[in-house]
Amino acid sequence: MNFSLEGKTYVVMGVANRRSIAWGIAQALHDAGARLIFTYANERFEKPVRDLAKTLDRDDSLFYECDVTDDDAINTTFENIKNDVGVIHGLAHCIAFANRDELKGEFIDTSRDGFLLAHNISAFSLAAVSRAAKDVMTEGGSIVTLTYLGGERVVENYNVMGVAKASLDATMKYAANDLGKYGIRVNAISAGPIRTLSAKGVGDFNSILQEISERAPLRKPVTQEEVGDVAYFLMSNLSRGMTGEILHVDSGYSILGR
Ligand code: NAD
Fold it and tell me: Which residues form the active site (predicted)?
């Protein structure tokens, strides 16, 4: 069995800095021999992403700005990718957003605008980018998104983002059903809590991490690299029989009862 991703090209969406889970995925795919295409939300993230890519030992990465709230931006990005590389073999969707003041207190207080914003960026975007990416995945491929336990169970303070993750999980399954006939698989990794820019917005995040260290079967939080390695598995031929699946990479925390 060949584990190499040499000759393959993957789009990684959502690297904000070196702590991003997307960066852990990018490194794993790079180490397996893949060529990388990075998309970032706006110009603020361009330099950090380009600087990180410079640390990789190849210089053929490509970079595109793509705000996933903008359909034209999504379509233009994937048209440009098609023109520039012809075909891609996978896509990592590592994007989420909710208003910080709605990631604490009670879910029921979520505003209408905040609810729609979280769902737009964190869930609908998977459908939108999958549709656009399909036209560039002419040899079939693999789409991986990142979800969290808060979409399956109530996690204090996670609130509207948990509800958006439930929507993301369902979006992933419906997309898997639609795209299977094109040889495109769609799966999710449910990552345990990791200290990233986004995670900082979740109220009392430190106590969530502490709970993992004390109670998860493996007694330690997961790392970006551990999530990246599972993304590599999902992008590779090893997982060719899987689609519509949620894999928990969370030190085993999700098996616990209260
Ligand atoms: P991060 O802040 O590094 O990444 C989030 C990314 O989303 C950023 O790059 C940001 O620019 C991007 N983004 C936000 N709005 C966007 C928009 N309109 N258009 C394009 N991009 C946009 O944080 P992260 O923790 O690495 O998050 C990546 C994914 O992992 C998210 O879906 C998050 O919910 C998920 N996740 C994180 C954890 C955790 O504990 N960190 C756990 C499980 C799942």
Answer: 148, 158
Specify if 227 maps to a domain: yes
Asked if residue 95 is part of any domain, the answer here is yes
Radius of gyration of the chain (CA): 17
Range of the domain at 103: 9-248
| Residue 64 resides in a domain | yes
Query: What are the pLDDT digits (tens) for 180-238?
Result: 999 999 999 999 999 999 999 998 899 999 999 999 999 999 999 999 999 999 999 99
Q: Average pLDDT for residues 8-22, to the nearest whole number?
A: 98
Query: What separation in Å is there between the alpha carbon of 30 and the centre of ligand 1?
Result: 20
- On whether residue 220 sits in a domain, the answer given is yes
Q: How many structural domains compose the chain?
A: 1
| Predicted TM-score (pTM) of this structure | 0.98
DSSP string, 27-76: HHHHHTT-EEEEEESSGGGHHHHHHHHHTSS----EEEE--TT-HHHHHH
Among 17, 70, 78, 95, the mutation site with the greatest number of ligand 1 atoms within 8 A of its Cβ is 95
Residues 178, 185: Cα–Cα separation, whole Å:
10
- Which pair of structure tokens corresponds to residue 134? 């399909």
Tell the burial category of 209 from Cβ atoms under 10 Å away from its Cβ (0-12, 13-18, 19+): middle
Residue nearest to atom 28 of ligand 1 (CA): 94
Q: Whose CA is closest to atom 19 on ligand 1?
A: 67
Q: What are the tens digits of pLDDT across the range 163-184?
A: 999 999 999 999 999 999 999 9
Task: Enumerate the active-site residues.
Answer: 148, 158
